[in-house]
Design goal:
Elements (H helix, E strand, L loop, with lengths): L1 H19 L6 H12 L4 E4 L6 H11 L4 E5 L6 H5 E6 L4 E6 L6 E5 L6 H4 L3 H6 L1 E4 L2 E4 L5 E6 L12 H4 L4 E4 L5 H10 L6 H6 L11 H6 L9 H13 L6 E3 L3 H17 L7 H12 L4 E2 L1 H5 L4 H11 L5
Parallel strand pairs: 1-8, 1-9, 2-5, 5-8
Antiparallel strand pairs: 3-4, 6-7, 10-11
Length: about 325
C-alpha cells in the first residue's frame, strides 16, 4: 500500500513539473485536470479564447502518455461526426465502421456549447458507460476514456447552454482566467525565443511520466486515502443543503456527493497526504458544484453569484473537528 501511494505521489509531482514547462502559471488548473484523470471522470473547461484551454489537454495527454483527439464543435456538427458511421464498401459488398474521433483516450470537445443539444447529447452514453452505439451495435471505448470539454462563457454570441443531464456528467468545472502580470510577461518573453509553449510541446522537452497502461494502476492508490466518517457526513450535508437553500432553484444531486468524495481523495494525494481534511472539501466544493446549481431568477437579477452562494453554504454547515 505504502509503495503504491509513493508511486502515485511521485507521478503527480513529475506530471506537475512537466506540464509547467508548457502551461505558464495556472497551477490550480493543472491540479484540477490531474484530479479529473485520477478519479476517471470528465471536466468542463471554461474561459475566454486564448487562455490555453486546448493546450492544457494536449500537454496532459503527452505527459501521461495517452492518445488524444479533438472535435471542433460547430452549429452544423452532426452526432455521426463524433461517433462515426457504417460505410458500404461496393468492392466487398459489406458495411464497415469508420470510427469517429470519440475512439480515443483523451477527447477534447472544443467549444462544446457552440453545437445544439442533439449533437452535445452524442457524448452522453460515452461519458457515462464508455461505450458507443452505432446502428444498434455497441462498441467499447478505452477504459481511460476522458472528455475535456471547453466552452466560452455563455454570454458570448453563438453559444447554446448545455443540458442539465450532460452538465451533471462532468465531475468538475475548471475555470481558466487571465494570467497574472508576471506570468503574462514570462509568456511574452518566451514568444521571442524557441521556448514558446507550442514549440516546447512539439519537441522533446515535455517527457511522459507514465508507461502505456500505467494510468489505471496508479489510480488504485487513491483507495488508501482515508476519509473520516465525520467528513463524509460533512460532504453529504453540504450537498443536501443546496436542495433547500432559498436562492437555489435546482440543487446538486447524488452524483455531486460521489464526485466530491473521490475528488477530495485526489486533492489529498496531490498534497502528498494519505488522508482528507476539511480544507480539501472546501477547495473542491466550488469546482464540483458550480456547473450543477441553478439560481432563482430573482436572486440572479439582484446580482447574486454561485460562488457567493457556495460561500454561504460553507458558513451554514458546521465543519467537523
Amino acid at each position: 500500500m505504502e509503495a503504491n501511494f509513493e508511486k502515485l505521489s511521485d507521478t503527480l509531482t513529475r506530471a506537475r513539473a512537466e506540464m509547467a514547462k508548457v502551461i505558464i502559471g495556472q497551477q490550480n488548473v493543472i491540479d484540477m485536470a490531474l484530479i479529473t484523470l485520477l478519479t476517471r471522470n470528465h471536466a468542463l473547461i471554461e474561459g475566454v479564447p486564448g487562455v490555453a484551454k486546448t493546450l492544457l489537454v494536449r500537454t496532459l495527454a503527452r505527459v501521461l502518455n495517452c492518445d488524444t483527439d479533438r472535435i471542433q464543435f460547430t452549429p452544423d456538427l452532426m452526432p455521426a461526426d463524433i461517433t462515426g458511421t457504417n460505410i458500404y464498401n461496393l468492392k466487398t459488398q459489406e458495411f464497415h465502421l469508420v470510427k469517429g474521433p470519440i475512439f480515443t483516450t483523451f477527447l477534447l470537445a472544443d467549444e462544446i456549447n457552440r453545437a445544439p443539444a442533439k449533437t452535445q447529447a452524442a457524448l452522453l452514453q460515452a461519458m457515462q458507460e464508455r461505450m458507443v452505439s452505432i446502428d444498434r451495435d455497441h462498441h467499447t471505448l478505452d477504459p481511460n476514456f476522458t472528455v475535456f470539454a471547453t466552452q466560452n462563457p455563455i454570454e458570448h454570441e453563438g453559444t447554446y447552454p448545455l443540458p442539465e443531464a450532460q452538465k451533471d456528467r462532468f465531475m468538475l468545472k475548471i475555470t481558466m482566467g487571465y494570467p497574472e502580470a508576471e506570468e503574462e510577461l514570462s509568456l511574452a518573453n518566451k514568444m521571442l525565443s524557441n521556448e514558446r509553449p507550442e514549440t516546447v510541446l512539439a519537441g522533446e522537452a515535455v517527457q511522459p511520466v507514465l508507461e502505456p497502461g500505467e494510468l489505471a494502476s496508479i489510480r488504485t492508490a487513491l483507495n488508501h486515502v482515508v476519509v473520516r466518517e465525520e467528513l463524509v457526513q460533512y460532504i453529504v450535508s453540504l450537498v443536501r443543503t443546496t436542495r433547500t437553500h432559498e436562492s437555489i432553484l435546482v440543487g446538486a444531486g447524488p452524483r455531486a456527493t460521489q464526485s466530491l468524495i473521490v475528488a477530495t481523495r485526489a486533492m489529498a494525494a496531490l498534497q502528498q497526504r494519505d488522508y482528507v481534511t476539511p480544507d480539501d472539501v472546501k477547495t473542491m466544493l466550488l469546482p464540483i458544484l458550480e456547473h450543477r446549481l441553478l439560481l432563482r431568477p430573482e436572486y440572479e437579477i439582484e446580482g447574486l453569484t454561485i460562488p457567493e452562494v457556495i460561500s454561504q453554504l460553507l458558513q451554514t454547515v458546521a465543519v467537523p473537528r
